[in-house]
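Re: that chain you flagged

S.,

Sorry for the slow reply, it's been a week of failed gels. I finally had a moment to sit down with the sequence you sent. For the record, here it is as I used it:
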Amino acid sequence: MQDSLIPDQTALDVAAHAIGVAKRAGCTAAVSVNAGNGLSIGVRSGEVETLEYHRDKSLAVTVYHGRRKGTATTTDFAPAAVAETVAAAARIAADAEPDEYAGLVDAALLAREFPALDLDHPWDIEPEAAIALALECEAAARDAHREVSQVDEAAVSSYRGLHAYADSQGFGGVYRASRHGISCTVVGSRDGAMQRGYWFTTARRATDLEAPDAVGRRAAERTVAKLGARKLKTRKAPVVFENRLATGLIGNLVSAVSGPNLYREASFLRDSIGQQLFPGFISIDEQPHLPRALGSAPFDAEGVATRQRLLVDRGVLAGYVLDGYSARRLAMTPTGHAGGIHNLIVSDQGLDLDGLLRQMGTGLLVTDLMGFGVNLLTGDYSRGAAGFWVEGGAISHPVEEITIAGNLRDMFRNLVAAGRDLERRGSIQCGSLLLDEMTIAGD
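Prediction finished late last night. Pasting the structure tokens below so you have them in one place:
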């Protein structure tokens, strides 16, 4: 696949031109330049169903005229188009209401060094080769078990992107990052009942991906394991969240301690720094400079340097997740989180998933969640769920059409154990989590 990314210096030059135009108009400015290209292949029933090339680029200009803010975007990097985009942002700022919290971040917080994070690994794969990998994945899923009735899709994707940021305080930074993946969605059937399952692998470097046949088999195994699912009687019981879903629980924590929800007073964790939220064996460490990790970045979307820090220290909330604007609203300092978090890693107690199930004894292993029943204002949590009933520390049978409910504050505080089976396919790395009790609503 031919690389069509613009050069790093071109991105910085485009940003510098926009900033120069803004300065001549009497404004300060922040400019983001993004570009990327990629390939996506999807196959079904031995035939290519989708073949897409992705090529994109954009420039976003935010100007400040005093405390008035305006933003405009363009996909045309020609000097005249960039100048017109800045002018459009300036016109918007002129008509905007002043906002005492608007403005660029403190220059002292901007990144001065750019660590080598090994994020950019182009995958020189042609469409024919990607199709072959997808077909291999599909065939492995189809042949893995007689109860696989169809493979909805086997897919291969590759993407490489560039992000540059500059502002009128003199900051200019750029980095490239790649992300590749293989995925498979499978349908299984037994006695007229059907279940759908899924598996995927993703990495910065193609050689770090799971083999396509392994992805297909894993998708088939997870699907077939769901066949014969039953409902449960309503009860209270211990619950294990599989690692993929445990990252979502930590994501709920991140949302609750994120600046916008805090200054809008829409979070149950407002004014919670220094409080014991988790048991003492839980720490959550942010490590933004891990080589090749999917959440790594040298600076955030405002140019603020990313830094290692503890979000939770031995159960105690150690800080919030703030961009420049929300930090001003809260009279605090930005934490380098404009645009998101960077490799949150949850501590563990050494047990794998099987060890957690043995520790639980009898209860529910949750492997699928449906709906968005999380109220961040109160912490109330209620989600549709499916998974497996566990007895004697071993899986007994699959379950479906249930709802699990609790309150996030109680769920965090009453964690029993965190597993070492870290989910590494995202910005939150967390093992499976064992909770002492939740309400399970069924028949």
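What I noticed first: The longest helix spans residues 8-24.

Talk soon,
D.
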